[in-house]
Here is the input.
Amino acid sequence: MQKQKDLSLQEWLPFERILNDGIIKIKDNSYIKIMNVIPINYSLKSDLEKEGILNSYKTFLKTCNFDVQILIQSNKEDLSNHILKIKESVKKENNLNLYKISEKYIKFITKLNNEKKSSSKNFFIITKYEQNVNTREEIAIAELNERYFKIKECLSRCGNLINEVNEKEDVKRILFTFFNTRKNFLS
Here is the structure.
């Protein structure tokens, strides 16, 4: 029986390289593009606005004749920086009453954060272009950029903001957060 070779992380992950415009080439010769979505607060809208948003979203789904993946990434809120700033501000004031109030406030927000399990959410849309053997890389890139503009146009009608992730460092940071759920560097 042959022993299976242990793969390095680079060999295990399907990514071949990140191109200059943020598009990721996958080892199977396909390409993906990641878009960041800043959503609207649907629950705050009137019934008429909600109906318009739903109709715009239906149009988005009908217009996209390609696969999209919607990813919602939830991250527990880290209050440590906020608490540290409060403590530093109180030290500068040297006021006993302010110290007592700030300690109560810190206990309150910590308890609230633990009970409510507050979190921040990041929303992404990912689209993939499957390249055949004869397709040039420029065609794949052009197709993914066209899809980005189509998605941006359709979802903007719903009130959402769509940001293109086109810097290599931003792509790396997002990929890191996809694979490492304990630490989020987006905030």
